[in-house]
Amino acid sequence: MKIALGPILYYWPKERVEEFYADAARWRVDIFYLGETVCSKRRALRRQDWLAIAGRLRDAGKEVVLSTQALLEANSELLQLEQFCNNGEYPVEANDMAAVQLLAGRVPFIAGPHINCYNGETLALLAGLGASRWVPPVELSAASIGALQGQRPAGMETEVFAYGRLPLAFSARCFTARADNVGKDECEQRCIHDPDGRPLHTQEDQRLFTVNGIQLQSGTPCNLLGELGPMAAMGVDIARISPQAEGTEAVVRAFRARLDERPAPELPPLDYCNGYWHGAPGMAWHGNEPNPG
Amino acid sequence: MTRIPELVCPAGALPALKAAVDNGADAVYIGFRDDTNARNFPGLNFGPDDARKGVEYAHRAGKKVLLAVNTYPQPHNWPIWTAAVDRAAALGLDAVIMADPGLLRYAASRHPDLRLHLSVQASATNHRALEFYHQRFGIRRAVLPRVLSLQQLWHTIAHSPVEIEVFGYGSLCVMVEGRCALSSYITGRSPNGSGVCSPAEAVRWEETPQGRQSRLNGVLIDRYGPGEAAGYPTLCKGRYHTEGRPYYAIEEPTSLNVLDILPELVQHGVAAIKVEGRQRSPAYVASVTRALRTALDTCAADPRRYQVREEWAAALDRLSEGQCHTLGAYHRPWQ
Q1: In which residues is [4Fe-4S] cluster bound (chain A) (predicted)?
Q2: Conformational region of residue A171, where left means phi above 0, alpha means psi within -120 to 50, and beta covers everything else
Q3: Which partner for B8 in A283, B44, B274, B319 could form a disulfide, CB atoms 3.0-4.6 Å apart?
Q4: ipTM reported for the complex, 2 dp
C-alpha cells in the first residue's frame, strides 16, 4: 500500500508551506496532493508557486497531483479551476463536479473525497469519464468501501482518508471570521493564525468540531493506523495522511512501519476518532487498542 | 414579459399536499416513506396509495407533483433506490428530484421520458457543475444550495443550461447541502446516507440546576436560561465556544425568507421558488403557501411598486425558527 499526503487543509504562510514540502520530500511518502482546496481568498501561494513545489517533488521522485477547490461559487474560482485542469503536466484531483466536467474524457483524474461517490454505479460512471483513482467520502464505512471494492472497475485505485481531522462540511460563511465577530469580506485571512484550525467546544468543553475558515472538520483527528491490515486485505491501494501543523513526519513513520510490518513508533497521545470506518458515529473510537488520548 | 416563478411547496403527507394545492402552490414535492429522500422522519411521507391520491388531487387542480429521491444509495441498499425511481415513473409524477450520479444515470437510461430535476443535495453551486448533470443525464432543472450571493446567483442563472430553482422560505441549511457530514459525525446518520439530520432518536432533553439542556447522542448542543425559548437541537444551531463565552458559532435559529428580494429573483429569471419543510404541519404549509402566493401575485402585477406587506412578513415570522428571518448567503454580510 502506498502513502499519500493529502492537500494542506489549513492556511499556512508561503515559507511554512515551502519548508514543509522541502522536509516531506525526504519522507517515505509516495504521492503528494498540492493546492488550496478550501478557500480562494487564501492566496499566499499562487499557481506558479504550487507548480514550483510540484516540480521539486517530482524531481525527488514523487508522484504529484494538483488538488482543486471543493466549493466553487464565483466565476473567478471557475477560471482558476480551469487553469489547474489545463496545467498539462500533472493529474488533477476533482473535488466538485465542475472539475469532473472540465476533465472528463480528456485526461485521467482523481475523484477526491468531496465527490459524492457512494455506490458502484457512480464509481463506474466516474471510471468511464476518466477517473483512475477515487477517495471515498469520509463517512463511508469499511463495509461499504469493501462492497465497492468488489464492484470497482478495472484500473481504478482506492485511496482512504486514514489520518487527520476529517473535512466534514463547507459553507458560504466563514466560521473563523464569525468567531472573531467580523464578516467574510473583512476576514483579512485571519485563518493564517490557526495552523491547525480553531477548536470548537461544547459548553462542557468537549471538543466538537474544528473551525477552518468556511470548512468544519472533526474535533479530533481520524486515525486508521490500526486498520491498515484490514484495509490492505480489501485491496485499498493508498492511505491518505492529512498534513497537520506539527508531527506529520511521525505519523508518516508510524504508518510506514505498520505497512512494513515493523514495530510502529508511538503517535502523539491525542484523542482520536475512527467511528466512520466501523459504521458508527464518526466521533467514536473503536478498536482493540485504547484511544491513545 | 417576465415569467413568474413556480411556487414549489412541501408536503410530508396527504393533508399537507392538499393544503399546498388549495392555497396556491404551483407544484408540491413529496417523498416516499423510506430513506430514499432527505426528510426520512418517523411518521412522515407517502406510501404508494397516498402518492397516487396526491398526484390525482394535484393534477385535477392543474398542479404538479415532484418526488424527491435525493439521498445517496450504498451497495447494500441500491435496489431500494432504483425501485423508488421505477415506482415514480409509473405514478405519472411531473418530475423526480435526484442527487446521486449513478441513480441519475439509471433514471435517464431506464425512463427517458421522466423529467429529472437536480436536487440541492447534489451540491451544484456553479454553471460548470450544472453543465455536467445536463449533458450526462438531461436534467431540466436544478435546485441550488443556499450558499450563493445574489451576484453569484445572477451569473449562474445567466450561464446555466437548465432552469434554476432557489430556496425562498424555511429553516436554513448553513452548510452546502450534500456536503455536510456533521450529523453522521455525532449520530452516525446524515442527510446523504440516511435522509436525516440530527435525528430525533438521538435527542435528549434534561432539566438541570444550570437550566434546560439539549443533547444529541450525548453531546451537549445547548443550555437555556429560565424563560428562554428552546429550539430543536440541530447541530449547526447549538451554542459552542472557541475560547470563552458560548455563542451561535455556526448559525442562530432562524429561517430564510426572500420576500425582500422577490422582484429581483423574478427579474433575473429564477424558474421556481422552493419552500422548505416537508416535516411541518398542514397548517404551516397552508400559511406559508398563502403568504408567498400573495407576494408572488403582487409582484407579478406590478414588480416596480412591489413592497413587502407587514402582514405577510408577520405571518411568516410567526412560523419561523427563532421567530426571525434572514436572507442568508444572498446577503453578502451574512457570509
Answers
A1: 39, 174, 187, 191
A2: beta
A3: B274
A4: 0.96
